[in-house]
Write a structure and sequence with these properties.
Elements: E1 2-11, E2 14-20, E3 25-29, H1 36-48, E4 67-75, E5 79-87, E6 90-96, E7 99-101, H2 103-106, E8 112-115, H3 121-124, H4 127-141, H5 143-169, H6 177-212, E9 219-224, H7 238-259, E10 270-275, E11 278-279, H8 280-283, H9 286-308, E12 313-317, H10 325-334, E13 341-345, H11 353-358, E14 360-365, E15 368-371
Parallel strand pairs: 3-13, 3-14, 8-12, 12-13
Antiparallel strand pairs: 1-2, 1-4, 4-5, 5-6, 6-7, 9-10, 10-11, 14-15
Helix pairs in contact: 4-5, 5-6, 5-7, 6-7, 6-9
Length: about 375
């Protein structure tokens, strides 16, 4: 799986850009604020349909323009054209081979794994940020999960609306029963998929972490569903989740009715990084936290390969400046696997000569890109 050509129109600081990418390693070199990360953002948009850094879609449109176009020629089992149109006066549009698609079908055609200096949010961030990581990761490899997730949040929205009506207008609580059943059914299916994903990703992360740490430490990823009180149970099959979900819903009923919104469900899940059994968020050094995140990101590559049959494209946004020599060496050594990689850097000397000499290098300066060293 790779992207062969990228075309931008009115995107960020690019009026127009046509870029032909190498199937192996591509290095974007330039000073800060020249447009290197904008190229990664555009490639990410073609995979996920959303930005990894813009608060609003309009932020990505050139300031004096009404729309922006991001287009890419991607190869999976065949070659396809993906397009995303951003508009100031309407919702964004997704196209696959010139035909409009809903967002849920657009995601997953082309897959990426993104590394950024801000990746420590996976360890140090909020449960909501980790849930989004899970949802977007699984959504890239499972169209069924994407649909299930959207259906769950529709039910949750309806249930919350009804809860407010019951709480503040003294309506009959029995009206909740039909929504409770749907919440339990959809939510339990979601959680069973998440538990399986965390188990697989955890095994792969542990192997990666052993290599990075020379086997001196043991990394574990632990799923923490909303009902996990002691965090010891790891057997989360569909039936056991459904039973515990039902019990939690009954226990929370009176408090939910007082507050007027849903207090239980996968929208309150989390997961943890543990090194030698200790929570890395609380007890880990910054070096241990970075190693755990790096191991997880590298494990994503193998996870996607196992689920889809091909490696995703890797996007590395100036991560070499944040890594010590050992972690940098380990990461860059993996690029010799010839997984398509797009890297931004301010200094090409950060890369080992044997990697840099075989890479396709682009000089980026004020929204202009030239091939060459």
């Amino acid at each position: 799986m790779l992207i062969r050509e990228l075309r931008l129109l009115n995107f960020r600081n690019y009026r127009t850009l046509d870029l032909t990418l190498d199937p192996s390693v591509n290095i974007l070199v330039g000073n800060n604020a020249q447009g290197k990360t904008n190229i990664l953002e555009a490639i990410y948009l073609l995979a996920m349909g959303r930005s990894f850094r813009a608060a609003r879609d309009s932020d990505m449109i050139a300031h004096d323009q009404s729309y922006s176009l991001v287009s890419g020629q991607v190869t999976t089992e065949a070659t396809h054209t993906l397009e995303l149109v951003l508009r100031r006066d309407g919702p964004k549009r997704f196209r696959f081979n010139k035909k409009d698609l809903p967002h849920r079908q657009f995601v997953g055609v082309f897959n990426v794994v993104l590394f950024t200096p801000d990746d420590l949010y996976l360890v140090k961030g909020s449960p909501g940020e980790r849930r989004r990581f899970l949802d977007w990761e699984i959504s890239q490899v499972s169209a069924g999960y994407r649909s299930l997730l959207l259906d769950y949040y529709k039910v949750l929205q309806h249930r919350n609306s009804l809860m407010k009506t019951i709480a503040f207008e003294n309506q009959d609580p029995k009206m909740l029963e039909i929504w409770d059943q749907q919440l339990i059914e959809l939510g339990s299916r979601l959680m069973a998929i998440r538990a399986t994903m965390i188990h697989k990703l955890g095994l792969l992360s542990r192997l990666m972490h052993r290599q990075i740490s020379d086997g001196k430490e043991e990394l574990t990823l632990r799923y923490v569903p909303f009902f996990a009180a002691d965090h010891q149970d790891t057997d989360y099959d569909y039936q056991s989740i459904k039973r515990k979900f039902s019990e939690a819903l009954v226990s929370a009923r009176s408090l939910e009715l007082r507050r007027g919104y849903s207090l239980v469900g996968p929208h309150r899940d989390d997961f943890q990084f543990l090194i030698d059994g200790l929570d890395v968020k609380t007890f880990g050094s910054q070096g241990q936290q970075r190693t755990a995140v790096l191991a997880c990101r590298l494990a994503e590559l193998e996870y996607m390969k196992s689920e889809t049959g091909s490696f995703p494209t890797i996007l590395l946004d100036d991560v070499t400046s944040e890594l010590d020599q050992q972690r940098k060496h380990f990461l860059l050594k993996l690029l010799t696997k010839k997984i398509q990689t797009v890297i931004t850097t301010t200094n090409i000397s950060d890369f080992e000569p044997d990697l840099a000499v075989d890479a396709k290098v682009f000089q980026v300066n004020a929204g202009q890109v030239q091939e060459g060293r």
